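Sample intake sheet
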Amino acid sequence: MTVRTLIARTFLGLTGWEAVGERIPDQKIVVAVAPHTSNWDLPYGLAIARLLNIRISWLAKHTLFWWPFGPLLRSLGGIPVRRDRPEEVVDQIVRAFDEAEALSLAITPEATRRHTTHWKSGFYRIAKTAGVPIQLGFIDYSRKRGGLGPAITPSGDVRADMDEIRAFFADKVGRYPEKKGEIRLHEEEL
C-alpha cells in the first residue's frame, strides 16, 4: 500500500465515507463528477479515486496553480486551464487524449460551486470529439459515499444522453444542496 493510498483510506475512514463502483475498462475516459457544491469535493474525490485505483487527472482554473501550490496540484493530477477560452480548452484536452496511452479526466460539468442554470458542455464535447466514453462519478454527502456509476458513449443525441445522466444524478446530494446546478446543457434547447 502506498503512502497516498494510506492517507486516502485514513481520511475517508475518519470522516465515515466509502468509495464505491469500478472504473470501466477503457484506457481513456471522461469522468463527469457531480454535484459540485463545495471545496471539500476535491479532497473527497481524490481520496475516492485513490481507493478505486484510478490515476485521475482534473481541470482547475489556472489561477489556483501559483507557487507553492502549483507543483502540489499538478502532482495530484491537476491541469490548469483558462476558463475564459473554453474552445481552446476542448481542443487542448482532445489533443491530450489523442497523445496519451491512458487518460482518466475528471470534469465537474457545473464548473463552479454556485447554483447554475446549465451545465457546461465541455465534458460532453470532449468525450464525443475524442471518441471516449463518459463515466459518471459522484460525491453524495447524504450517504457519505462517492465513486463511479455507469458509462455512456455520447451518441450525438444530446437530450437522450442527458436524460440518462439526469436519471443517475437525481438522488445525489451535494454538501450544499441549494447550490446544486440544473442538469441540462444549452445544446438541449437548440
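Comment: The beta strands are 18-20, 28-34, 56-61, 78-81, 103-107, 134-140, 145-152. The mean pLDDT is 92.
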